[in-house]
Amino acid sequence: MPATAGERPLTPAGRRVLEVASALFYERGIGQVGMELIAAEAGVTKKTVYDRFGSKEALVLAYLRARDERWRAFLDERLAAAPSPRERVLATFDALGEWLRAESARGCSMVNAVAEVPAPDHPVHRVAAEQKSWLRGLYADLIVQAGHGDAGGLADRLALLHEGAVVMFSVGAMADAPEIARDTAAALLP
């Protein structure tokens, strides 16, 4: 996966840095993790971290993009197994429940990053907005495949259900939030 502004492929050390940084950023928060800690945990020098990524900002963006790629691949597998267009829509919520329980107990990495970096012109906001826009677009595509006429309006509702389930699950308010969101989506679909 490309990781730097120049889109160079990652070396083994670069992949290790990204893996370590991703785990630390997600578990501890971006602001709580310094380049020294990342280098130490990855078993490389701080110079290696900067040589591979250029800056902490670039490393954060690589982390967000890599996490999003993992989510999309995870979701694609579940969608491919669904037997019908309607079931593919519902499979997004099944996949969400699996993902939250296995990979995202602290919630959405995009939302967490945006909360830590409040400046709206920061590139983190663009990456997060692109991911959320992709999700809405996915729902619109799935709705069209399912033969529903109001793809935009229904896609908005499903994206909100999805994001609401992430929040309710991650704050500990509803352990079954993905399942409730799935049931609600099923009621909205024709």
Automatic annotation (TrEMBL):
Keywords: DNA-binding, Transcription, Transcription regulation. Residues 34-53 bind DNA. PROSITE patterns: HTH_TETR_2 (PS50977). Residues 11-71 form the HTH tetR-type domain. Pfam families: TetR_N. It comes from the Bacteria. One of its GO terms (molecular function) is DNA binding. This is AcrR family transcriptional regulator. It comes from Actinomadura viridis.
